[in-house]
Amino acid sequence: KEWTCGERGSAEQKAAAQRGKLLREVMRPAQTTPAWQDASPAPEALRGMRRVDCPSPREEAGVIALFLREALETPSKRAALITPDRDLARRVAAELERWNVEIDDSAGQPLAATAPGVFLRLSAEMMTGEVEPLPLLAALKHPLAVGGRKAGDFRALVRRFEKAVLRGPRPAAGFSGLAKACTAAKAEKDLTSWFKKLAAMAKPFACLMARPSASLAELTEAHLAFAEALATDDTQPGAARLWRGEAGEAAAAFFAQLLEAAGDFPPMQPAGYAPLLYTLMDGVVVRPRFGRHPRLHVWGLLEARLQQADLVVLGGLNEGVWPQETRADSWMSQPMRQAFGLPPAEVHIGLSAHDFAQAFAAPEVVMTRSTRVAGTPTVPSRWLLRIEALLPGNKQIAGAAGAHEYLHWYGELDAPQAVRPVATPKPRPPVETRPRRLSVTAIETWLRDPYAIYARHILELDSLDPLDADPGAPERGLFIHKALETFVKRFPRELPAKTGEELLVIGEKAFGKALERPGVRALWWPRFVRIARWFVAAERERRAGGIFPLVTEAKGEITLSGPRG
Fold it and tell me: Which pLDDT does position 400 carry in this prediction?
C-alpha cells in the first residue's frame, strides 16, 4: 500500500526527491562532470537552501548563532550545527550565551580546557623553571586560587604584589628571589606576610621541582597537595572546591588513574612534568551528563550520521577543514600502504563527501564559511565549488544575496545607537592643587600636552611597567651613567694603577642583576667595555693636563613668582 499525506507533505517529499537528484549531480565523478552543461535542477531542490560567506570566524560564529536562535522561535523545531571545526563550535556556544542559551557540543571538552584542568596546569607551570612572573600571575589570578582567604582579599593582594614586585625587570629566581625583591621594594607588612605564607605553601613542591630528577608519583602528589592548599578559601577546603562538578570529578578520576600508573613510569626531569600533564589531560574528554538544550545541538561529522534536525547549519566549509587536508604519512608511503592492504590516505575525503551529502539533504540547510582566517584568504570547500559550477550565476548558492542579511543583523547587535565624539579634555584644577615644581623636561611636555601634566601630577596616574620587562635604552643609559659617576666620585684626583679593571668592577655592580639576562650580557656589556677603554684613556689625558672633575652632576632651579607666590 502506498501511504499518502497532505498537500504540505507531498511538497516536502517532492523537494526531498529533487534535493537527492541535485546531490547526485554534485557528487558526480570528475570524468563525468561535462554532463553538468545539460543539467537543470528543479527549483524545489533549492528550497530551504542558503549560504553565507563571512569575513572572519567571529562573524561566521555570530551568523550561525543567529540562525540557531531564530529556530527557537518556531515551537518544536530542532536545529543543529554540523562542523569538524571545534574552534568554530566553541565560538558559536559563546555567542549563544548572549541569549542565555547553553548548547552541548557532542565532541565534549578536553579536561585541559576546563576550569579545574586549567588551574592544575597553571599551578604546575608556575613551579617550572625559576618561578617566573607570567606563569606565577597566571596561576594566582585563576578563579580557583584563593590561598585560604576570601576571593576578593586574595585578588587584592595579588594585584598589590604584582605592582610592587613583579612589574619591571624580572626578580631573582625562585621564591627566595621574590622574597628579596619584596624586601627591596619595601612592601607593606601584610603583603610580605602573605607572600611568606604562599612560599611556605609551595615549598614542598618547589623543592621537588628543583631536584635533577624525581618520580612521577612524587611530583603528582606534591602538585595535588599544593593545588588543594591554593584552592582552599575561608569556608571550604581546596578538595571540595577543586574536585566538584563534572569537570572536577573527571579531573579526580584522571589523577587517580595517573597515580595508579605512575609506579611504572621511570624517574623524570621535573621540568617535563607540566608538559606531560597537559598532554595527558588534553586527551581526556569531559561531557555533561545531560544535554544542555533539547532543540539545539552541535555535532561533529561522526555524530551527525545518526542524527536529524529540521535546520542544519554546515559550518567551516573551507578546504582543509571540510574536507580535512590530506597529510603525508611519515612512516608509510602510498605504495607501502597499498602493499600492506591499507586504505589510501585520501579515504577520509570520501567519508567527508558522504557526511556532507547526508547533512545537505536536510529540509533547511545553511552553508557558511570564512573568507579569511587569521588574516589569510581561504579556499571554499570543494563541495561548494561543485555546487557553484553546477548552478552558475545562482546568487542563493554563490553566497551573494539572501542570507547575508543575517551578517548585517549580527553586525547591528553590538553596534552603538549613535557615535558621539568626546570633546577634548580641558582640566582646570584649583590653583592649590596644581604642581609647584616641574623639571625642565616637563616644561616641554606642558607646552605639548598639558593633560599629561594633569594626569601625572594631579591624578597621579603612571603607566605600569611591563611584566618581565627587558631593560631598554633608558636603563642602559642609567647603568652606564651610574658606573661612570661612581668611578669619578671614588677617584676624583689620582687614578688607580689598574684603572680599566677598577671601572669594570664598578660597572658590574652598576648593572647588577641585569647582567644575568643573556641579551644584556651579550650586547650591552661588550659595549660598556669599549666605553670604559675610551673613558679611561680620555680621563688620563685630561688629568695629565691638569683638568680634574669638580662635580659629576649638579642640580639647579629657578623660582618664578605666580598668583600664589
Answer: 43
